[in-house]
Amino acid sequence: MTISASIPLRVVVLLTSVALALALLLTGAVVARANDGSVTGGESGGTVTAHIEHVVVVGDTLWDIAAAYTAPADDVRETIFDIKAANALDSSVIVTGQTLVIPLEF
Question: Is the pLDDT of residue 63 over 90?
């Protein structure tokens, strides 16, 4: 049994296929772009790292900020290390008004 399709139907099918292919390519590009920006694959391969920004206020210390973003079972010192690395800090000195990038793993 042969199915015969008219030329307009063939054009619609072709254009729909092209549109679907473009949508898939754009989705892949968006995912790749997101992985180059604030969301990256973690070192363990099973975690995703994102970040938020924290503006330092009077009285903030790096320890207090890290403790606020550290899970109860995790070590605050590791979070401090990650914050310092993400912000290219040589020391734990922070100043009021400074915006810190806080990496989060989930």
Answer: yes
